[in-house]
UniProtKB/TrEMBL annotation:
Superkingdom, natural source: Bacteria
The protein's name in its UniProt record: Pilus assembly protein
Transmembrane segment boundaries: 21-42
A Pfam family the protein falls into: TadE
InterPro entries for this protein: TadE-like_dom (IPR012495)
All copies of domain TadE-like, residue ranges: 13-55
UniProt KW keywords: Membrane, Transmembrane, Transmembrane helix
Length: 141
């Protein structure tokens, strides 16, 4: 009887038990923060490339010149992001006039080839395809 009472009131090893129960949840939370930070950084990079491509397209006089300026500037911005936007061949930049007569710069990136996305099976992630589209009309967007 005395041994059972002593066993119920003993707190040795309680910290190790609490750590064993809580550590997986805390580590999963930290891992999710890291994965989502890479995802949002890639999203911001794609949007930044689209905006800079549209801004550069304003300087062009012809459609061909606007297209070349937009694609060149967007690719330069993408190159500045280094390995973050390099997986799977990198983002695809399309620029040109659309059916409404406006000039559209679209940057899309499939993150499924990224090394970080292979761990996304453990954590629910948004779609691996990230895209941004900017429309330029009459020198403004």
């Amino acid at each position: 009887m005395r041994a059972a009472r002593r066993l119920r009131t003993c707190e040795r090893g309680l910290a190790a038990l609490e750590f064993a129960l809580l550590a997986p949840a805390l580590l999963m939370l930290v891992f999710a923060v890291v994965l989502y930070s890479f995802y949002f950084a890639a999203l911001m990079g794609v949007r930044h490339a689209a905006v800079e491509g549209a801004r550069a397209a304003v300087a062009g006089l012809s459609t061909a010149e606007r297209t070349a300026l937009a694609q060149g500037r967007a690719q330069a911005v993408i190159g500045g992001y280094g390995t973050l936007l390099a997986a799977g061949g990198g983002p695809v930049v399309t620029a040109g006039p659309d059916a409404t007569g406006t000039f559209r710069v679209r940057v899309s990136y499939d993150m499924s080839g990224s090394p970080m996305m292979r761990y996304a099976a453990f954590i629910p992630m948004p779609s691996p395809t990230v895209s941004a589209s900017i429309v330029v009309t009459n020198g403004s967007y």
